[in-house]
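Handout, page 2. Input:
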Amino acid sequence: MAEARTAPLEDLRPLSPHLQIYRWTWTMAMSVAHRMTGVALYAGTLLILWWLVALSLGPGAYEVVRGVMTSVFGKLVLIGYTWAVFHHMLGGIRHFVWDMGLGHGAPARHILAAGTLVGSLVLTALLWGAVFLAR
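Output:
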């Protein structure tokens, strides 16, 4: 009688999954975006620090910061920073909802993830629309 061949334990374990196996989903993309906006918030905090230091150093230093921040590039950076704040905040709220045990079903997960992106874009547009209208 032939004996059944048994594979070593290492051969029975699955290979580690990688990005080529996964199909991108809203929740996956928003998870990556949440991490990226967290990093962007560190950089934006340095901008706030630069602004505060310039305020304390006097009008000359403040004019340099104001000149940079009111340039087209500076405004784009500030708009991007504002979006990162809103996106990270809404992502945190999404995780808080999950921590309460809500929104774990497939439709709810996708709605919360898409809502994070759409909500952050809408809030950024509303804020900067109000800023530009006020000027």
